[in-house]
Design brief:
Number of strands: 12
CATH architecture of the largest domain: 3-Layer(aba) Sandwich
Distance between the termini: 50 Å
Strand order of the largest sheet: 1-2-6-5-4-3-7-8-9
Radius of gyration: 21 Å
Number of helices: 19
CATH topology of the largest domain: Rossmann fold
CATH class of the largest domain: Alpha Beta
Oligomer: single chain
Helix content: 40-55%
């Protein structure tokens, strides 16, 4: 029997079938293996499958053998996950466009993949000021020392500073590349790349030997946002890839923080725009930022306080009750609640809103929730 992961790979090889359509296929048919055997008419029922896309599927599907393709791909790319794998990063999987193939190199820590260890993305300009560098180093160091994994894109500037500071503090870091995981870009970061392989992970949706391409880097920003509990934008001009990452973060329900700067500083303009749009301030009190990001409490399994077991609650739907049962008197991060309920992130978000309107729970900064 061919594994489901082979079908994720096979479907991704058909031109015009991207992560969003793959997600819709899976949701419509239940598995991509079933979708692979679906007729043209059945595929046409899926949103986004127009006439041209259907023609490409019919023409190209007949030339692909999922099992053989998977075996060959494993030989050329020794380490990768598909959404069918249990250790595929859970937060990324819950986004609308998870990569069908996520390649990796380095040291895997399953707690990160399962959402049991918090990941925070740090992004910004390739040409930061001394001010931006100083605060990036301070915050990355504090995050690493408090158990967070720092996620960034290994570009020059803010990315490089965040990776380096996290590792110097003895923490882990994840670099999301716009190339294959074996291609170092920029080349001046070759020593950083080697260090990350020993103190973290390098990931990419592009297979080995994929060279740099300017269209890849904006796309990889959704992976940075998808992996992370929150995104911190340290410095960014108005035309910056960091703002793309922040946009994805908003779409995925992640918190966005921005470092305030002077009104007449070009590297601060993107951050000021984000703050004007509702992003949270990165304040001088780093301890407060850590608390907002969920440093307290840690992602541990917590027992329900007996006092809540005695409360008389109104009749709730099964889904609302499921979410309610996962909450305690202590504030819990959103991704931990998703993990405990085993429900889609969108369903959990909707349930939390309803429970909050009913006065049964309270939302705290950093997407943390507790019983009222």
């Amino acid at each position: 029997m061919v594994e489901e992961g082979a079908y994720w790979l096979a479907w991704s090889q058909i031109s015009g079938i991207g992560p969003v359509l793959l997600r819709r296929l899976q949701q419509h048919f239940g598995t991509l293996a079933i979708a692979w055997k679906a007729s043209k008419a059945q595929l046409g029922e899926v949103e986004g499958f127009g006439f041209q896309t259907l023609e490409k599927v019919v023409q190209q599907r007949s030339r692909l053998h999922p099992e053989n393709l998977f075996i060959k791909h494993q030989q050329e790319n020794s380490h990768f996950w598909t959404p069918a794998d249990t250790d595929y990063p859970r937060l990324l999987l819950e986004t609308p466009s998870p990569p069908p193939i996520l390649y990796y190199r380095g040291e895997v820590e399953l707690q990160e993949n399962l959402g049991q260890k918090p990941l925070v993305g740090i992004v910004g300009t390739r040409q930061p000021s001394e001010y931006g560098i100083r605060w990036t180093r301070q915050i990355s160091t504090a995050l690493a020392k408090n158990g967070f994994t720092v996620v960034s894109g290994m570009a020059e500037g803010i990315d490089t500073e965040s990776h380096t500071a996290a590792m110097k503090a003895g923490g882990r870091t994840i670099a999301v590349l716009g190339t294959g995981v074996d291609v170092i870009y920029p080349h001046k970061n070759r020593d950083l790349y080697k260090h990350i392989l020993t103190a973290g992970l390098v990931v990419s949706e592009y297979p080995t030997k994929t060279p740099p391409d300017r269209t890849h880097f904006p796309r990889r920003n959704r992976i940075i946002a998808g992996l992370s509990r929150a995104i911190l934008v340290m410095e960014a001009p108005l035309k910056s890839g960091a703002l793309i990452t922040a946009t994805y973060a908003n779409e995925f329900g992640r918190d966005v923080y921005a470092l305030p700067g002077r009104l007449d500083d070009n590297p601060a303009q993107g951050c000021l725009k984000l703050l004007n749009q509702g992003a949270s301030f990165i304040l001088k009190e780093i301890d407060e930022l850590l608390t907002m990001l969920g440093a307290v409490p840690q992602l541990d399994v917590m027992e329900v306080s007996p006092i809540f077991e005695q409360l008389s609650l109104p009749d709730l739907s099964p889904e609302l009750q499921r979410v309610m049962d996962a909450l305690t008197c202590d504030a819990l991060p959103f991704d931990f609640i998703v993990q405990q309920t085993d429900l889609p992130a969108s369903s959990v978000s909707s349930a939390l809103l309803q429970l909050e309107l009913m006065g049964l729970i309270s939302q705290l900064p950093g997407m943390r929730y507790q019983k009222s």
